Amino acid sequence: MNWSISFEPLISWPLLALVLVPLALLALVGLWFRQRGGVLRFVALLALAAALFNPVFLNEEREPLKSVVALIVDRSQSQDIGDRTRQTDEALAGLQERLGRFKQFDVRVVEAGKSAAAEERTETRLFGALEGAFRDVPPSRIGGAIMITDGEVHDAPPGAPDFNAPLHALITGNDHEKDRRIRFENAPRFGLVGKPLDMTYRVISTENETGPVDVRVSVNGEQVSVEHATVGQPMPLQVTIPGAGRNIIELAIDREPGELTDTNNRAIALVDGIRENLRVLLVSGEPHAGERTWRNLLKSDASVDLVHFTILRPPEKQDGTPINELSLIAFPTRELFVEKIKDFDLIIFDRYQHRDVLPILYYDYISEYVDKGGALLIAAGPEYAGEASIARTPLMSALPAMPTGEVVEKAFYPRLTDLGQRHPVTRGLDGSATEPPHWSRWFRTIGVQNPQGEVVMKGADNRPLLLLDRKGEGRVGMLLSDQGWLWARGFEGGGPHVQLYRRIAHWLMKEPELEEERLTAEGRGMVLEIRRQTMADDPGPAQIITPSGKTVTVKLDKSEPGVFLGSVQTNEIGLFQVANGDLTALAHVGPVNAPEFADVVSTENRLKAPAEATGGSVRRLASSTAPGSDVTLPSIVPVRSAGEASGSDWIGLRTTDDSVLKAVSRVPLFGGFLGLGLLLLAMGSMWYREGR
After folding, report:
1. Where are the bilayer-spanning segments (predicted)?
2. Closest Cα to residue 116, out of 664, 475, 568, 628?
């Protein structure tokens, strides 16, 4: 029971003062001059004042509130090491049982670090979870917090947290753990393809060892070297970037006996390979309507260095004019096709015919260039079907089709073949989804026979229009019409000439995105996404090896012709290996070299400062270093706000004085007949004394 007195005056305070103050002055004057009945008048005035003030006794019925205690459980991946999960579960069950004995505590259990979102798994953020647990709790009702963790907390403040209550940390693991890890010190994000890239790394040990260690270096899953490093010292590394696009550089060291985990015995760097400017040689025959189409396209590409020659003065048109009087540049045939031919990534013959400008031997050099990995594109016109066709030179061994001598002059819409709808060069070409295609017509097709390679576009009378073929280690393309300039000029609405020409050129130069058979994988958040390009009808499922060594099979579903997609949700962070048929790919899911795995040795140091600043404590759960040792929990003691909050074998949690008002009982002192009787008695006594 909580008794208190309250005044509930019958009239307002100003009016009450107006009535009682003059009467009080008169009563005091009577007492001062010792008038007869002065004391009774003063007593009557007091009775009147008490009646007007209306004092009331209040009895409040209150229910005490509970102190809120947060029990923060670390469920991050580093807690899966060794006995830590068992220790955590035993400590959680024991604390819940002990806290359940105290009715004055409201316990809130929060498990942190197990979210599927990648950004929430990069670090162990227990204080963020603690803040969320107390977000709706007044400061006076916070009883304290207990964290069960390995101590590797990445958002620990340098001092006290933002609440006035003890913080206690119970550390899993043991104080004699051993671990060795490797990390990149300097890893550029970009590198030139085919050029060495300078990097640095370091091997770190918890025992401060300084001996040598072998480091395996792998690029895109293939081991390229074994480096000899000194533990604790920064080590230089040179890696040659093999291809354009994403490249995965991996460093790995062997697991030592007694080491906690080999999860951090690997370090990953993602390097985007950038090609140096591609060198293209464009040789045009006599000037024609579409001559500048290829030139303008290649010149507009900042990644292409173009060398362009147009044959304006073939040998049969020599007229004896001295060279020094001509403004034309002599065609440097030997320099281009003998001395520097290997420097070019692509050679284009645009309506070119053999006119003895190139010695016949040079065509052999071009064929050899293709066979050893070069790229050749023939943009054919009527010359390809004539007597001076380059198909009648030694270059014929590199060509995908021989001319029939027929030139078909007939309007047609270029269309994709069944292969062309799946081939990355022509797949999804703007305007190809309708019938007829949403682009302009062409009016000439060069007839060929026995085409090799893949026919991805067809022309008039379903004749081959675009051929793509592989010759030895190189590639050859053949466009059997010179009418592409109609698209560039906007005839009948034009067409996607830039898209088509650029894809042809980049496929010939082996751009990875345009490979017919390609398997790629990429981590997006905590989802592994798989993309398979293929000319087959069904590539079958993909097999995945997770960082922990588990094997998972994922079905690939068709998303568009020639493209199959699959995905899998995962809770593991690390390097995934994906295989489909003969193709393999690597992908890293989650943050690269996440702080969660940078240091996995359990520690008391990170939480010591914030715990001691609140009067709390940090202690280990396991009393022994042996695996499977029992968990020792401290006793829990409720303490007042000003008391100690920890001892050698106990931890304290604060209780609150806050309560909730349930009901109020009122007892008026001058209410009813009792108040009236007392007032009449006082007034009557005064009247009686005055009458004598």
Report:
1. 12-32, 39-58, 669-688
2. 568
